[in-house]
Each structure stands twice: as structure tokens, then as C-alpha cells.
Amino acid sequence: MYATLLDGKAVATATKEALGPRIAALAERGVTPGLATILVGDDPASEVYVASKRRTATSLGIVDVHHHLSADVTQDQLDGLIEQLNDDPAVHGILLQLPLPEGLDGEEAVRRIDPAKDADGLHPENLGRLILDQPGPTPCTPTGVLRILDHYEVPTEGRRVVVVGRSFLVGRPISVMLSSKARNATVTLAHSRTEDLPALCREADIIIAAVGQPQLIGLDWVSDGATVIDVGINRTDDGLVGDVDFAVVSERAGAITPVPGGVGPMTIAMLMENTVALAEASAYVAARRRA
Ligand code: NAD
Are residues 103 and 179 located together in one domain of the fold? Predict the structure, then answer.
């Protein structure tokens, strides 16, 4: 392997360790951060993700409030639970695991979450803040990708970035974040209708793959020394693989994230950081009201 391995697991560990003093400072003010997770239905991948998020929260001393609803829950019942969690002072962050089973509207449910408790940073108000460069919780996976780039000092200023995949969860927010004045990258957002994607990717200094197609990005998509961030998580007969053909691309790229052990752990770490930040903001507001 030629490329530098961008070890998301190590960056996630450092990110979680940095939360320790912040959680201790909250405890001194009588506040324990609380994260509510909502899982609907029995999708095995979602169950694994939520279990991992809950385990991490507990290990950090964040209160774990979990609700597992059956797949035949109505939209009204789901919305009712979200309202209840919005009103619960022990809950500082709410995570609704997406996608929801058929018949339920995930975007509508996310809109119900109090933006001040939006641990995933996906409420339209917070996505609006993101576009306006205003502070607020930011989506976990894109933020995790930026943290990996920062940790390994991969410059973005003036660099050509191709983001493959335009979902509101990953591709679109990361393209906005990278093109902000703080990052100054020149971003191309590619998708399933993009023509000659391999040629476009060969122009990129940084490729971010968030597609959901196992090993789509091969050797001839990547120029020598490019940085390749693989967001994809695909379950195949050979186990978990990303959207990048790691074995061959790692011979040409300058730096690359593995799957597993790349972006995935960062998504969870950023969820914890968002929850702690929301608890801090809530404690600040409560203190101001008392003053
Ligand atoms: P999505 O299905 O919502 O979006 C996929 C995007 O890829 C779409 O915009 C589509 O236009 C594009 N696309 C599909 N086929 C394409 C092709 N052949 N060429 C170019 N573009 C194509 O998916 P998502 O929620 O953004 O997730 C993408 C991948 O990232 C999935 O594998 C998912 O499991 C993974 N994911 C990982 C994490 C993590 O923490 N590592 C978090 C979220 C999603």
C-alpha cells in the first residue's frame, strides 16, 4: 500500500477523549448530557448503528434514553414521541435513526425535532444555518469527514474536491461545508446522472465517495497522490466494503480512509460532540434565565 491510512478510529478516540473535561464541567453545574435515540422497525443495519451509538454514549457518561418503535407505528405516534422528548429536560439531543420503514415520512419527523435538540444536525433550520455559515449542530458524517481531513492536515483551500452522491445526509451538506469561506475548496457535487464520472474524479485533489455502491471507485478514477474519503458502507458476501476499491486505489492515492475504521467511527464521535454541545447550550440558556 502506497497511501497514508487516514485512521478514523484513532481520530474518533481523540474526539471522544476531548469530550471528557466538557462533560465533567457540565457535571459541576449539575447537568448530565442526555441523548435520546429512536429506532423504528427491525432493519438489522440500523439496529447495529443505534446499539453502537448507545454504547458510546453510555461509555462517555451521557444518559442513554432509547425508544424502539415497531415498523407499523403511525406518523402521529412517532411525532408524539418526538414532542415528548422535545419537552423532556433530561434529553439534550434527539437522534432519529434513518431511513424509516416505508409509509413513514423521515423528513417530516426530523422537522418535528426541536432544532435546539437536533443531535444529527439535519433539521431544516440547522441545515439553513449551515448554508448561512451560522453556528449550530452540523450533520455528523460530513463533520466527521472534515475532522479527519483536519487531523491529517489535508489542505482544502483552493483544492478541487469531487463529492460523489448528493444525499441530504452526506453529499449535499459536505459540499456546502467544503465550499464555505472557512474551507475554500472548489467543489463539484456529482451524482447518478453525472457524465463520465471517472474522468471528473481524476481531476480531483480530494474525492469523497458517498454513494452506496460497493467498490464503485476504481483505480482509473483516481489521480496519483489524491486524497480519497470513503463514506460508503455496503454489506456484501465478503463483509463490509466501502464505495472505493480500497486494495487497488490505496496503491495510487496519497491518503485514504479504510472501511470499516474510517468515516463510520467519526459519525458516532460527532454525534456525541453534538449532544455535549447541545447540553452546554441548554445549560447556558438556563443559567441566563436564572440570572
Ligand atoms: P443515498 O442513497 O441517500 O444517496 C446516494 C447518492 O449516490 C445519491 O445522491 C445518488 O445520486 C448517488 N449515486 C447512486 N448511484 C450512483 C452512481 N452509480 N454514480 C454516481 N452517483 C450515484 O445514500 P447516503 O445516505 O448518502 O449514503 C451513501 C453511502 O454512505 C451508503 O453506503 C451509506 O451506508 C453510507 N453512509 C455511511 C455513513 C458513515 O457513518 N460512514 C453515514 C451515512 C451513510
Answer: no
